[in-house]
Amino acid sequence: MSYYSPAVSTLVSVSLIAAILFSRLRTKIQDIPNERSLHVAPTSRIGGIGLMLGVLSGWVLLSGVVTWWLLLPLILLFAVSLLDDMHNLPVTQRLLAQLVAAAILVAGADLFIRYGVVTALVVLLFTVWMTNLYNFMDGSDGLAGGMALFGFTFYGIAALFVHDEAFAMLNFSVAAAALGFLFFNFPPARIFMGDAGSIPLGFLSAALGLWGWQEGCWSAWFPLLVFSPFLVDASITLLRRSLRGAKVTEAHREHYYQRLVQAGWKHRDVALAEYVLMLAVGVSALPVSHQAFPWLVFIAWAGIYAMLMLMVDAKWKKFQRKENA
């Protein structure tokens, strides 16, 4: 095990993204503003290359720790997502790759044998949802990179609490690569991570959460709370759109973070507010990470999220009234 793996991940991530920005490659794959976008100018969206290679570089030093059922689907999703960034693959092809990746994870972790069919199917579907969810939430400067920094850092800290230093370094390496990406993505962003970054990060949030649960680093609910700033926004937005009959696969700007930006908040303000939320959620989860289910913590956060959503909804309605006046 190497304690230098996070430093290597940051160094590689920063170096590769800087090289991309100073090369012609930055103009080859760009995010062109559309109906879902919050930016107005074409921006390079291949920062995910530097981010993911940063992760893998740090993991090279942990070669005895990384399992095939984590590495193989991660590389598959990175490759398919990079192709999607370049050629806009059909939804069916992307979903198939995500299902295959989740199936490899479930099979490699022996979930069918150890926990039964129901648990295995729940984990498979949750992994696919987390994989897509991260992509849904990657729409504002500094947001997805910040969630990776905080989320995987708390995974690492929780692993240290049970003295699993190797698994902690695995998570810290992901967080460190995200930090390197944030050097260039924190508002105003000079580069986006694209699907090649957001899709693998979503997969890792589920996969490493599963691994930590199996290794006894935390209870099954812990990853849900740590990544709840993304889970709640994406899930509630999708539910609301479904209830009114909107196409869930259609691009939109209805996420809470998107509405804040549209209503006048700067990208920096949204990112910093989300960082405070991510930090508070993670800190509250750590002391009870081994409880079967901390009802009081979840009830408290359910109330906080409900209050925050009502506040954003009120601000959005006020903004719409001004726009229509």
Features:
325 residues, two-stranded antiparallel sheet, 1% strand, 2 strands
Radius of gyration: 19 Å
Low-confidence stretches: none
Q: How far is the first residue's CA from the last residue's CA?
A: 62 Å
Task: Tell me the major beta sheet.
Answer: 2 strands, antiparallel
Shape: globular
Number of strands: 2
Alpha plus pi helix count: 14
Strand content: under 5%
- The secondary-structure element order is HEEHHHHHHHHHHHHH
Number of domains: 1
Mean pLDDT, to the nearest integer, reads 94
Helix content percent band: over 70%
Secondary-structure-based class equals: mainly alpha
Q: Strand sequence of the main sheet, in spatial order?
A: 1-2
Task: Please provide a written account of the structure.
The mean pLDDT is 94. The chain is globular, with a radius of gyration of 19 Å. The protein has one domain. The longest helix has 30 residues, at 295-324. The chain has 325 residues and is mostly helical. It is built from 14 helices and two strands. It has helices at 5-21, 47-60, 68-87, 91-108, 111-115, 117-136, 143-161, 165-185, 195-214, 222-226, 228-243, 256-262, 267-285, 295-324, and strands at 30-31, 43-44. It has a two-stranded antiparallel sheet.
What is the topology?
Layout: H1 5-21, E1 30-31, E2 43-44, H2 47-60, H3 68-87, H4 91-108, H5 111-115, H6 117-136, H7 143-161, H8 165-185, H9 195-214, H10 222-226, H11 228-243, H12 256-262, H13 267-285, H14 295-324
Antiparallel strand pairs: 1-2
Helix pairs in contact: 1-2, 1-8, 2-8, 2-9, 3-4, 3-9, 4-6, 6-9, 6-11, 7-8, 7-9, 7-13, 12-14
